[in-house]
């Protein structure tokens, strides 16, 4: 954990005590005298799902970059989840990854696969952040609006439901999640609508937990089964702490997966990867199925919002709620906290402008990868950018080669896990393996910027 000298920056208030809010609070504690995290939920003492984070009942995979970044922000994260019953495997060898209907070649990658449920990840992070001397986490407290200075250039506090007095703030970070009220609060101050981009996907997710009955999946820790044009069903199975499994299946474009076991098994039978069906068939179902809709991915462009108060930041899903099937949300929340730490190293002057620029730099790659892949489906509604045929052919060849070529498979999974940028797929040693009829490598690589690499 890196600690910088604490300046006298007064009080930072964080709206939302989930992952994005907690990780932001951790970083703010280095440079603000006091950090107050406000959450409307009653926060549980144990690692269990809660109302304010409804997606917490769905399967959550933590990408390797996310695990590494959380560990660097919250020293002891990995040992804490292991102490709580989770295991850590190899992200490429212990998970069976599919891509466009074929399994990616398995091999040791050295990338961590932290097999902890969403609630446990948050619980461990919350325990560590709550132990920081100048951080206070206040639950059952709903923020309802902002108070600003006379000229509107600075936020001076947040208003609370049922309280007469606002909480004073020298900085406010909204980490209120996908349903963030920032657009409303800022409109109440007379600001224009927050510019945003959406991709309509009509997704829904059904998850169910299971208890192990002996050994499953040949000892592996999970598998994914992504959708691709011609295969509109997708899903994920992951080992979680204490010998449990979670199976999640997605319906796209308003199709909803069944919630009963027989229906889930039949649906799993339509997937490319047989791992999900194996767990539903062989393990013991526990708890109730959980259903959730996710109509669209949305990215809000606060950097472009004229008149925004200079000390008001928005992070995590409140800033960008990525299509969840790529499992990037927790990782980009952690990367934004890391970006906030870097921005704060240069002081608090023009903090909003510098933070939103840094957060956008974090989000550009994941957003481009997710949306360009989603927009391969004709039913997806969003801004379609012109596709470079040479680049598309090159990426198609890269994707196909992940099934047979260990170097390409490794490079692809490192990009998928946000460890390397997409341009790593254009590295000369990868390009050399992709030479095949119909693929004009040099034309594809001239641009060096490769999007649409995920599934
Ligand atoms: C179906 C689904 C599956 C997903 N799967 C994955 C995955 O596999 N991997 C992955 O990395 N990510 C996944 N995600 C995304 C992931 O859940 C989020 O990115 C992550 O939880 C970070 O969210 P957050 O902290 O920004 O917001 P949230 O976790 O949504 O938390 C928002 C918090 O703000 C509080 N709050 C809201 N409004 C107020 C208010 N006015 N006052 C006080 N408190 C307030 C809420 O109570 C809550 O605690 C998935 C998302 C969905 C929907």
How would you describe what is shown here?
Helix 2 crosses helix 8 and helix 6 runs antiparallel to helix 7. The strands form 5 sheets. A 7-stranded mixed β-sheet has the order 4-14-15-16-13-17-19, sandwiched between helices. With 455 residues, it is an alpha/beta fold. The protein is 30% helix and 23% strand. Flavin-adenine dinucleotide binds next to helix 1, strand 17 and helix 8.
Describe the SSE topology.
Layout: E1 11-15, H1 19-28, E2 34-38, H2 64-73, H3 77-83, E3 87-90, E4 95-96, E5 98-99, E6 102-103, E7 112-115, H4 118-130, E8 135-138, E9 143-148, E10 155-160, E11 167-168, E12 171-174, H5 182-188, E13 196-211, E14 222-225, E15 233-240, E16 244-251, H6 261-268, H7 275-282, E17 284-300, E18 312-314, E19 320-321, H8 329-345, H9 351-374, H10 389-401, H11 406-416, H12 428-431, H13 441-445
Parallel strand pairs: 1-2, 1-12, 2-8, 4-14, 12-18
Antiparallel strand pairs: 3-7, 5-6, 9-10, 10-11, 13-16, 13-17, 14-15, 15-16, 17-19
Flavin-adenine dinucleotide binds at residues 15-21, 38-41, 52-53, 55, 58, 60-62, 142-143, 175-178, 181, 205, 292, 294, 316-318, 324, 327-331, 333.
């Amino acid at each position: 954990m890196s600690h910088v000298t604490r300046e006298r920056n007064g009080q930072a208030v964080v709206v939302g005590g989930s992952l994005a809010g907690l990780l932001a609070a951790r970083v703010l504690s280095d440079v603000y005298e006091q950090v107050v995290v406000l959450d409307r939920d009653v926060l549980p003492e144990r690692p269990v799902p809660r109302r304010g984070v409804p997606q917490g009942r769905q399967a959550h995979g933590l990408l390797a970059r996310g695990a590494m970044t959380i560990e660097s922000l919250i020293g002891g994260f990995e040992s804490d989840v292991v102490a709580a019953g989770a295991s850590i495997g190899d992200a490429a060898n212990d998970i069976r990854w599919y891509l466009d209907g074929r399994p990616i070649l398995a091999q040791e990658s050295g990338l961590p696969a932290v097999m902890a449920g969403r609630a446990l990840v948050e619980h461990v992070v919350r325990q560590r952040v709550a132990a920081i001397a100048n951080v206070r986490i206040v639950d059952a407290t709903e923020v309802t609006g902002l108070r600003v200075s006379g000229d509107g250039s600075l936020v001076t506090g947040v208003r609370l439901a049922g309280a007469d007095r606002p909480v004073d703030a020298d900085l406010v970070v909204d980490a209120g999640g996908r349903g963030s009220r920032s657009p409303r609060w800022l409109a109440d101050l007379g600001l224009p609508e927050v510019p945003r981009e959406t991709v309509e996907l009509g997704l829904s997710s059904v998850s169910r937990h299971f208890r192990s009955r002996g050994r499953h999946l040949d000892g592996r820790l999970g598998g994914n089964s992504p959708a691709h044009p011609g295969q509109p069903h997708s899903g994920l199975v992951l080992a979680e702490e204490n010998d449990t499994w979670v199976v999640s299946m997605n319906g796209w474009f308003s199709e909803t997966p069944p919630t009963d076991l027989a229906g889930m098994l039949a649906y799993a039978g339509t997937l490319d990867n047989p791992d999900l069906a194996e767990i539903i068939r062989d393990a013991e179902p526990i708890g109730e199925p959980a259903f959730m809709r996710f109509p669209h991915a949305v990215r809000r462009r606060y950097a472009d919002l004229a008149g925004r108060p200079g000390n008001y930041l928005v992070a995590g899903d409140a800033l960008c709620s990525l299509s969840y099937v790529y499992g990037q949300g927790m990782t980009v929340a952690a990367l934004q906290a890391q970006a906030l730490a870097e921005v704060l190293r240069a002081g608090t002057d023009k903090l909003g402008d510098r933070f939103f620029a840094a957060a956008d730099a974090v989000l550009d790659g994941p957003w481009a990868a997710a949306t360009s892949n989603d927009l391969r489906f004709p039913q997806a509604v969003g801004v379609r950018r012109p596709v470079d045929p040479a680049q598309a052919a090159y990426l198609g060849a890269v994707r196909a080669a992940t099934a047979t070529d260990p170097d390409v498979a490794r490079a692809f999974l490192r990009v998928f896990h946000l460890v390397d940028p997409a341009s790593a797929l254009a590295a000369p040693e990868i390009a050399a393996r992709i030479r095949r009829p119909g693929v004009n490598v040099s034309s594809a690589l001239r641009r060096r910027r490769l999007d649409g690499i995920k599934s």
